[in-house]
Amino acid sequence: MGFIEFPFIEVPKDLRKIVGEPTPRTRAYRREGTHAECGQWIEDLGLYYKGDVGISPAGVTMFVPVQRAAVHKRIKEGKLTAFFFYITRIESTFFGTRRKVKLRPYIVLSVSECKAWAAEMKRRAGYVDEPDETPLRVSKRLMPLAAEDEPKTEKEAKEALDFAETDPKDKGTRKVRYEEALDTENRQQDMFLLLAEAMAAMASGKKAEFYRKRLEKGMKWDKKEKTWKWKE
């Protein structure tokens, strides 16, 4: 089987004003700012990539049977394009100095790259795409191979998580302090709302109206499934 180049999405230089600069030797583009700027960021990404960018690291499992740690590891290795946004504010310390406070980032990835990762995994397993197969059947067959993409040690998993949650350029500086963002439930809801807002702005006609109505109705927490769902 010949070499197949991974189909990374293009991130032109003129898009850097929206996505920020990449961490060296990776495709991890990092940006920071206010809540309002974060909303504009996800909307701009949705418009530019026509809906291809917007999936979270947790959502990658819809396409590739791996845990989130494997996604972080692949981003750290420069094998996935990822867009980060850190919401920031300025605080005064006890001694009167000022420093930046950064929340753990929102991270979005490309759906097409996730599909390409799945296709790559299937090629490594030795079989070609089978369009009639369900994702579940494919996932079960790929589980042993998927383990190869997971971090091999706890240290490797922690390093991948640290890379995903904190900007390497902030390491060792006292001028930046990281803090946890909203709890998991609220962060999930926040991302759903941001994506819906982006789709409402990007789509047209009935599709745009569909997302506007969703935003008007809001969301509710499903305790049994432990996820946010749109109100009917």
Structure in a nutshell:
The protein is an alpha+beta fold. It has helices at 16-19, 35-48, 68-76, 111-125, 135-146, 154-165, 184-202, 205-217, and strands spanning 21-22, 28-33, 53-55, 82-92, 98-103, 106-110, 176-179, 219-222, 227-230.
**How far is the first residue's CA from the last residue's CA?**
49 Å
Structural category is alpha+beta
**Order of helical and strand elements:** HEEHEHEEEHHHEHHEE
What is the beta-strand fraction?
Answer: 15-25%
Give the helix tally: 8
Shape: globular
Give the averaged pLDDT, no decimals.
Answer: 82
Number of E-state strands: 9
How would a crystallographer describe the biggest sheet?
A: 7 strands, mixed
- The low-confidence parts are none
Tell me roughly what share of residues is in helical segments. Answer: 40-55%
